[in-house]
Amino acid sequence: MSFTMFTKRGRTAAVGMAVVAASLLGTVQTAGAAPAGGMSAAADADHGSSGQGPVTPVAGSASASRAAAVASPAITRDEVIRRAKSWVGIGLDYNQAGYHQGWRTDCSGYVSMTWNLGSSLTTNTFIPEGVAEWSTKDSLRTGDVLLNEASGSSGHVALFEAWTDSSHTEYMGYEFTSSGVHYRPIPYPYFSGYGTFKPARLKNIVGETSRPAGRVWDRARPDGGPWDATADLIDAGGAVNAVSAAGLPNGTMHVQALVNGEIWDRTRAAGGTWGASSKIDANGNISDVASAALPDGTLHVQALVNGEIWDRTRAANGTWGNSTKIDAGGAITDIASTALANGTLHVQAVVNGEIWNRTRAANGTWGASSRIDSGGAVADLSSAAGADGTLHVQALVNGEIWNRARAANGTWGSSTQIDSGGAVKQLSSVGMPNGDLHVQAVVNGDVWDRVLKGDTGNWGVSNLIDNNGAIFDTYAAATPNGTLHIGTNA
């Protein structure tokens, strides 16, 4: 980890959540009753396989040999799921002799497509061809499969997305059966009566997410003043995948960097001096990070690990405590957090495109989570506290930003669209001591800032504050003296 260099660069400014799964099951296609033991796949079109075609190179492949045709380029887990979704609900018929987009329209052809293989393999060839390898239940990750390696109609394969809850007895999966392509809860390892299923993994799958990696810069705007003409390069290693930050009551600021699934924390003293970074979580499987500072001087850092949220606290005296799991749902894809002036901490989670909010009371007790956005299309989120005790949560939907406010009395209002451009890729936000709320949007690698004025309640126009062109992640933090810090990961 090279989170130790910092220079100046001139740059022009221009669930519980665990109940989520149970709530979700009513909204997805249900699997129906499991067949009795020994029932053939042909007897139940909703489950299993009714046959598979031969191993066949993808239509149009110029490969001279099957081995070369089968070979798969490296693919991210996010891309596997994106490909899997592309065949859901478009009316494809199960046909072992048919093809769509070059891949065979049966169970193994479907998985071959999601993995972007050069051939439509069969259930009994994924392992022998060297494309996949056996795995374990405990190591199942998004994009892996549950495989019955028998041939013909005896074999079948289902794509794993995430566990439905902490019991790990059921998962959300994709599969192609005689009745079509399904996305639904599946009992682990598969419905009874269809043979032996074991976890397997594509050898060329990479990363927990498709996040890029880059360096981290911090730019400040003093209260009432202009943006600094230069930005601090606070991580020059080029391996940071995600960032978060929080300003503490003592005037210090903490920036967290996600590197190779681990979290590093760096402190900016109240006088403006950046210290060295320290590793605060060496898990290795963390896919997102968020943080918030409470009025009592404690810092809370949340880590997203295998779809679950862990919270680690740094006491006001600088001592880090152990991590506590605060959501075991297993299906979370993005997180954000905010602390309010009353001492409560709010953590938001995106689950299947919906937003859930969980509150930690000022006395340290975690409450149950509540769903605050059920649209099903949220791709990213951020949150910020208003000086008046309000909580604002921003949702990124189809490249547009929506803001929902929770009043100081706990009542959620309706969502308001604050950016309709359709090209936003990532969000961050922060509340300022003067009552203003700043929301940052990444558009085409640039960062734009929009302000909700605390004195009028009106949103201003967006201002371009960084035209780098390669930014993919941001953080926002405020210090008690009214200084706004915007961090960029590029």
Features:
490 residues, eight-stranded antiparallel beta sheet, 4 helices
Write the topology of this structure.
Blueprint: E1 7-10, H1 20-24, E2 56-57, H2 66-70, E3 75-76, H3 77-85, E4 95-100, E5 103-105, H4 107-114, E6 119-120, E7 132-134, E8 145-148, E9 156-163, E10 170-177, E11 180-187, E12 198-202, E13 205-206, E14 214-221, E15 230-247, E16 253-259, E17 262-268, E18 274-281, E19 286-293, E20 299-305, E21 308-314, E22 324-327, E23 332-339, E24 345-351, E25 354-360, E26 366-373, E27 378-385, E28 391-397, E29 400-406, E30 416-419, E31 424-431, E32 437-443, E33 446-452, E34 463-466, E35 473-478, E36 484-489
Parallel strand pairs: 3-13
Antiparallel strand pairs: 1-15, 2-6, 4-5, 7-12, 8-9, 8-12, 9-10, 10-11, 14-15, 14-36, 15-16, 16-17, 17-18, 19-20, 20-21, 21-22, 23-24, 24-25, 25-26, 27-28, 28-29, 29-30, 31-32, 32-33, 33-34, 35-36
Helix pairs in contact: 3-4
